[in-house]
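Appendix C reproduces, verbatim, an entry submitted by the partner laboratory led by Prof. M.T., so that reviewers can inspect both the input and the predicted structure.
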Amino acid sequence: MAKYSKAAGKSVKSAVKRMKKGTLTSGKSDKKVTSKKQAIAIGLSEAREKGAKVPAKKQQQKKAAPKKAAAKKKIST
């Protein structure tokens, strides 16, 4: 079973071409994209918007806060 559709691959390919050409910008900041990974992510995002078969974004895990008990060690006398 295919993980990505042909339309998704086409979208990624065009995003990478635009990055190499220097016309791919990231989001609202309008900064030029120089990273290949970022170009692929933008291409997949555009494919999702068009409704192509693309797996959902992975959710970031929240980092656990450091335990306060370890910071409050009592000094025994």
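DSSP finds three helices and two strands in the chain. Additional entries are available on request from the coordinating office.
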